[in-house]
Amino acid sequence: MIRLAIFGSGSGSNALNIIDKCRDRLDVQVSLIICNVPGAGILQHAENNGITAVTISNSELKSEQFLVELLEQHQIDWIILAGFLRKIGPQICQVYPNKIINVHPALLPKYGGKGMYGHFVHDAVFQNKESQSGITIHFVNEHYDEGNIIAQFTAPIAPTDLPKDIESKVRALEIAHFPTVIFETVLK
Question: Is the entire prediction scored with pTM above 0.85?
Answer without folding.
Answer: yes
